[in-house]
Structure formats: C-alpha cells, structure tokens
C-alpha cells in the first residue's frame, strides 16, 4: 500500500440540505467516521451537497471520477434521484442491488457485470451491508442511506473493506489480491460473508438467487447456501426478500457465446400485447392551447362553452327587403317606399317605420323595428329615384309573410354559454369543431396533450437515406427513420428526429437518456432480434431500469416487437414515465407494428377513444396462403366496388424487409394462423391505414 492516503469524497443528496446546508448532519458525521474508523488511511478531499436529481448527482460524481486526480472513493448519502429506481436504505435484496448498480446514471459500470476481478470483493462490500456499490473509472462509489444514523452505521460496516476495493479499482494488481481469495480479504477486514452470495450472473441467465450454478465465469468461488449474520461486531441485515428485478435480456458484456439462443420473452398474442399497452399508457394530461390550426387532431379535455352568441345580431337569411309584419299591418302586399338599405357590414342602421321597407342583403343586420324579410324574388321594382340607380319603391307580391320569417335571431345558431364541445370530443379537419370554436370567438381551450414522439434508428450498418454515392458492402440506407417520422406527423403527433444510434451499449444508453428529456414516447427500430448486437432490451432493462412489458408477439411480421416503460424524473423533479416502442429493424415490420401498437398508445395518451385503426370486413379478391403459426398482417388495397362491398387485393410479396409491400396499400388484412389457403370470396377483417377508395368501375 502506498504511503499517501486514499482520497474520499462525500456527496450529500438532499433537497432540503441543498437549499440550506446548515440542515445537513450527514456530512460531518461521515467525515468523523473516516477519521475515527478509517485507520488513518483516508483523506476526505471533498464534500458536496446537491439536490435530489440525477443530473446534479451525475455532474458532481463525474467531476470526481473523470478528472485527472480522481477520488478513490465516493460515498453518497440519501438521494432518490440517484438511480432510476429508488436507492434507499430499504434496498435490501441482492437482485435490487444489481439492478441499482445497473441503472445508476452516467454509465457507472456495474461491477458485477464488468469487472471480474473487482467483482467479488465489491460484492462482499455491498452484500455484507446494505450500501450499493459500483465503480466508475478508478473510483468506487458507495451509496448510503440519507439518515445520519443509517449513513454512519453503513459506512462503518464497509469502511474496512474499502481500501482493498479502492486499490483494485485504481489498478493495483488485482490478480495478486485476488489470489488470496475472499477468505483473505474477509480475514483482513474482520468480517465473513459466511458463504453464498447470490451473485448476479454474468451471462444474464435467470437463476434462482438461492441456487447458484458455478459454471466457469472466471470467478468460480465456492458458493454455498446460507447467509452469515452479525459478524465483526455489527449486524448488517442480509436480505431474503425477492427482487422485483429479473432481467430477461442478454448481458451485452457476456459475448456472443453467452447470449440466449432462444428468446426468453414469452410470446404474446397481439391482443395480449395491446392490453399491456393500454394498461401502461400514461393517462392523458390536459393543457391549455390557443385555438389555431395545430388544434386539429386534439381531443377536448373539458367542456367548452360559447363565449359569444352566433349570430350576435338579428340577421337576414336572404337578399330581400326588411319589413314590419304585425297585427297592425293589414297586408304586406302592395307598394312600399325603400328609404334606406342594410348591407352585411358593421355600422348603425336607421329604424324602420310601419309602411316602409329597407333593402337588405344576406347576413346583414335587420333594422330596428323590422320583424321579417321578404325575398327579393317575391318583389318587383316599381320606381327608381330620379338621379342614379337607387330604388325608390318596390311592390311586394305576397301576403303570406309571417313575423320572424327569413330572420336568424340573435343566438339562434349558438347561444353564449352553451356547451359547444364536450370533453372527449375530437377536433377534426372536417370542419365542425374548429368552426364552432372560431365562430364563437373561443381563443383558448383545454385539450389533452399529444405525446411528442422521438424516432431513432439503430445499427452500425445504417447510413443516412440521402447520403450520396454508392453503398459499401454491408451498408443499408435508413429506411425506417424517415418513414416513421412522416407516419408520426401524418398521424397528428409532433415527431423528433433522434438520428441513428450505433450498436454500442453506451451510445444507445446515452441516446435514450437524452431522448427521454426531449420526448414522451421513443420509437426505435432494429436491435431487437436475437443477435449479439441487439442491445435494446438489455439497455432498457439493465441500464435504464425500465420494465419490458413484452418482448415478443405472435404475429407476422413484427415478432420481436418490444414495449417498455422507463421511470423518469424530469428537471422539475417530478416522476414521469417514458414509453419505448422498440420495433423490428425490417422496414415492413417496423411500419406494420407502428400502425398496430404505437398508434393506439399515442391515441390513448391523447384522449382519443376508441383507439386503433378502423376495422372493417372485406371480401378477398384473390386466394391467400395462411402462415401456419402466426397471425399475419397482410398489406392490401381495399376498394369499394359497385355492389357497395369492400374488396381486398394483396400488394404482392410480403417479406418483412420489403417496404415496397406498403406501396399502394391502404389496409392490413388480419389473417389468422392456419394450414389452409383462404380462397377468394372469403371475408376477413381489415385495418384501414389509409383512405378507402372506390374502384374505378364503381365511379358514377
Ligand atoms: P436488427 O433487428 O437490428 O437485426 O435489424 C433487422 C434487419 O433490419 C437488418 O437487416 C437491418 O439491417 C435492417 N434494418 C434495421 N434498421 C433499419 C433501418 N433503419 N432501415 C433499413 N433497414 C434497417
Ligand atoms: Mg441492428
């Protein structure tokens, strides 16, 4: 061991202490533990207090781990923003331990996954007590509870082990250290693990935590069963509680020979998958927005009442003459003087007296006193004024005019205060809803926020679709991203281009983390097949602490479609959920699964009901072979023929890589799995993606 002391940093994570450092007790208590229990080996070189959010924590820790003179040890106290899942003193299951290490921000290496030689001693550190440990670069990071007592006891319980671990992390000859075995480490530290520690498996297979297989991982220590309690003068609880973290995904560090050879995700039916999506889609959130063209596609979040009446004045429905009809007027038939006129424009209009008429245009305000309007067709001109073209007198040819005839009374279309749109109603481009808002002078409405959707392609082979020049062998033009971006926008949602992420675990993780700050829903394509470069599932599950609700669906195309949610703390510190749809890489599969799974979720989140593509019955216009095992979503053109029925024709070859199978398609035929061929004339369900068209021969 070198003569210089080990450098330790203390990070207090607390909303309160960040505002008022005098409220913090942990900092000084931990400092004292280093002094009194640290065997004169420690120099507490830095202490920081940050609020409980991942960004601040991340920034501070990386300063300490990534600078030239990095810390040997970082202890954190408190903090729920530290991991995506809470890291609290109550974390007491080993599965959770591994999970927490895997989800710490800024790419902390989970020691159990990446550092075989550090692995065992560090896991002992972590497992002998409740703290959660990880490494980044050459620093060891140990998280402690936020309570002063818990922080002190936990640090005391592990402090003796930490110099060894720090040396290993800093690059000492870990083989030599390792040679002494865990017993040596334990002896030196005065503790004993007692035995079997259910270490998180390197190859990612799911193991019963209490049934540990010793197959050669390069650290095949004797793992027995049972747990040591209360050694070395302190009794750190060793938990038996089951973890809620059971990653099924491959461990990306395990290498190709360790990856799963069959998918560990259960194969769900499309309906089961849709049910999970419906259950996990966040509830719609009302937002106040201006009434403008962006409103089209939104759903109203609360009843909207008319601010004004339509019309706001008594208006004529026709071109003609305003007249007074009442019991005092014996007949409307006869010749009347025309002293003035009322045009459809703003301004004062003189009063009409009995025995007079006023020329009036459609939509113009009735003169005060007028009761009715007689259509110009029911009159003839009898005389003009001497100079010019103005009418002097007209004759009304009918006696059948009633009070109120051809008049739109004030508020007769819409009364001020009436509900014009109900909560849950959609604002379409057809015209009615927007027209009502516009005509009543409604300037702002509450609608449900429509999710912002980020679209990401993945794969080292993917190049920009418009890159000039020929492709090199292996390169593939990015078909999915531009296609999905247009699809998202056409479906009425704001789309954010997230670019292409390469098949490197860190890159994907960072890209997704950044994306979560910008968008509500992330749609990725590629990286969900069974290859060793397929990183989506492990990244979501292991690095981001997400929950994969399904990872396989019994459908053709689209089998590896993956749906996950990731807990996320926004900059204001509120807990939110981000949704990830990881669609298959093959372009036709990506587009089918977007329509089938992504769209209903976007619709539900924006308050649309019912969700999903409209389903209609269509008659097959040709024979179609069925897939033996999987329900197929077959691209087709549905047309209406002269008999009024809908007929479907396949767009041709349906291979999942062939995006061309979508050309000219407006529907997905829902074909069941089966042995037989469905003959022409059979009826099947079709999901309408595009507009229904009339067959040419059905045009009148
Ligand atoms: P993966 O699931 O990543 O193995 O991808 C399956 C197939 O889809 C591979 O042939 C990929 O090259 C292809 N692929 C993945 N992403 C895209 C994309 N954005 N555009 C075109 N092809 C893609
Ligand atoms: Mg790929």
From TrEMBL:
Keyword Metal-binding applies: yes
Catalytic reaction annotation: molybdopterin + ATP + H(+) = adenylyl-molybdopterin + diphosphate; adenylyl-molybdopterin + molybdate = Mo-molybdopterin + AMP + H(+)
EC number(s) reported in the record: 2.7.7.75
Pfam families, per database record: MoCF_biosynth, MoeA_C, MoeA_N
MoaB/Mog domain residues: 9-165, 454-604
Source domain of life: Eukaryota
Gene3D superfamilies cross-referenced by the UniProt entry: MoaB/Mog-like domain, MoeA, C-terminal, domain IV, Molybdopterin biosynthesis moea protein, domain 2, Molybdopterin biosynthesis moea protein, domain 3
Cofactor: Mg(2+)
Region (Disordered): 205-264
Transmembrane segments: none
Basic residues bias locations: 205-232
Annotated keywords: Magnesium, Metal-binding, Molybdenum, Molybdenum cofactor biosynthesis, Transferase
InterPro entries assigned: MoaB/Mog-like_dom_sf (IPR036425), MoaB/Mog_dom (IPR001453), MoeA-like (IPR038987), MoeA_C_domain_IV (IPR005111), MoeA_C_domain_IV_sf (IPR036688), MoeA_linker/N (IPR005110), MoeA_linker/N_sf (IPR036135)
Listed pathway(s): Cofactor biosynthesis; molybdopterin biosynthesis
Role: Catalyzes two steps in the biosynthesis of the molybdenum cofactor. In the first step, molybdopterin is adenylated. Subsequently, molybdate is inserted into adenylated molybdopterin and AMP is released.
Similarity remark: In the N-terminal section; belongs to the MoaB/Mog family.
Protein name: molybdopterin adenylyltransferase
């Amino acid at each position: 061991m070198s003569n210089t002391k080990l450098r330790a940093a203390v990070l207090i994570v607390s909303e309160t202490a960040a505002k008022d450092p005098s409220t913090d007790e942990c900092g000084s208590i931990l400092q004292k533990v280093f002094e009194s229990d640290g065997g004169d080996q420690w120099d507490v070189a830095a202490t920081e207090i940050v609020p409980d959010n991942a960004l601040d924590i991340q920034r501070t820790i990386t300063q300490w781990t990534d600078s030239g003179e990095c810390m040997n040890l970082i202890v954190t106290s408190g903090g729920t923003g530290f991991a995506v899942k809470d890291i609290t003193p109550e974390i007491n299951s080993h599965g959770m331990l591994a999970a927490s290490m895997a989800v710490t921000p800024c790419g902390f290496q989970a020691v159990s996954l990446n550092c075989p030689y550090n692995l065992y001693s560090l896991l002992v550190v972590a497992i002998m007590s409740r703290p959660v440990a990880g490494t980044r670069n050459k620093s060891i990071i140990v998280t402690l509870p936020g309570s002063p007592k818990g922080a002190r006891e936990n640090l005391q319980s592990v402090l003796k082990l930490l110099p060894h671990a720090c040396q290993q992390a800093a690059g000492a000859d870990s083989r030599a250290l390792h040679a002494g075995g865990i017993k040596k480490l334990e002896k030196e530290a005065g503790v004993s693990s007692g035995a079997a520690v259910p270490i998180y498996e390197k190859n990612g297979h799911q193991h019963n935590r209490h049934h540990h297989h010793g197959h050669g991982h390069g650290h095949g220590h004797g793992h027995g069963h049972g747990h040591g309690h209360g050694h070395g003068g302190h009794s750190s609880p060793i938990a038996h509680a089951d973890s809620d973290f059971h990653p099924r995904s491959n461990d990306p560090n395990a290498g190709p020979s360790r990856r799963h050879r069959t998918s560990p995700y259960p194969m769900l039916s499309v309906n089961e998958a849709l049910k999970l999506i419906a259950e996990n889609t966040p509830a719609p959130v009302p937002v106040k927005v201006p009434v403008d063209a962006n409103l089209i596609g939104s759903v109203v979040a609360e009843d909207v009442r008319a601010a004004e009446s339509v019309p706001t004045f008594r208006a004529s429905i026709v071109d003609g003459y305003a007249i007074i009809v009442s019991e005092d007027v014996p007949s409307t038939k006869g010749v009347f003087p025309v002293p003035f006129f009322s045009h459809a424009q703003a301004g004062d209009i003189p009063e009409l007296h009995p025995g007079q008429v006023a020329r009036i245009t459609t939509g113009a305000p009735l003169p005060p006193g007028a009761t009715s309007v007689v259509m110009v067709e029911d009159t003839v001109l009898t005389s003009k004024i001497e100079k010019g073209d103005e009418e002097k007198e007209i004759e009304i040819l009918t006696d059948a005019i009633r009070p109120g005839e051809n008049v739109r009374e004030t508020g007769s279309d819409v009364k001020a205060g009436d509900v014009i749109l109900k909560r849950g109603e959609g604002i379409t481009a057809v015209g009615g809803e927007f027209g009502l808002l516009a005509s009543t002078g409604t300037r702002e409405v509450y609608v449900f926020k429509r999710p912002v959707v980020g679209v990401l392609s993945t794969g080292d082979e993917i190049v920009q679709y418009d890159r000039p020049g020929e492709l090199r062998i292996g390169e593939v033009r990015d078909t999915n991203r531009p296609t999905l971006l247009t699809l998202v926008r056409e479906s009425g949602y704001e789309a954010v281009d997230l670019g292409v992420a390469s098949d490197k675990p860190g890159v994907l993780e960072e890209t997704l983390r950044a994306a979560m700050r910008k968008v509500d829903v992330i749609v990725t394509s590629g990286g969900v097949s069974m290859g060793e470069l397929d990183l989506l599932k492990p990244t979501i599950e292991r690095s981001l602490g997400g929950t994969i609700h399904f990872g396989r669906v019994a459908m053709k195309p689209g089998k590896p479609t993956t749906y996950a949610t990731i807990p996320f703390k926004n900059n204001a510190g509120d807990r939110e959920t981000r949704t990830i749809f990881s669609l298959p890489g093959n372009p036709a599969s990506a587009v089918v699964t977007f329509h089938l799974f992504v769209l209903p979720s976007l619709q539900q989140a924006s308050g649309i009901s019912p969700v999903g593509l409209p389903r209609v019955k269509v008659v097959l216009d040709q024979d179609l072979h069925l897939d033996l095992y999987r329900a197929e979503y077959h691209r087709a053109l549905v047309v209406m023929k002269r008999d009024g029925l809908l007929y479907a024709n396949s767009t041709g070859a349906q291979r999942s890589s062939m995006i061309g199978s979508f050309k000219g398609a407006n529907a997905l035929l829902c074909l069941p799995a089966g042995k037989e061929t469905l003959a022409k004339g059979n009826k099947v369900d079709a999901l309408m993606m595009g507009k229904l068209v009339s067959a040419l021969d059905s045009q009148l």
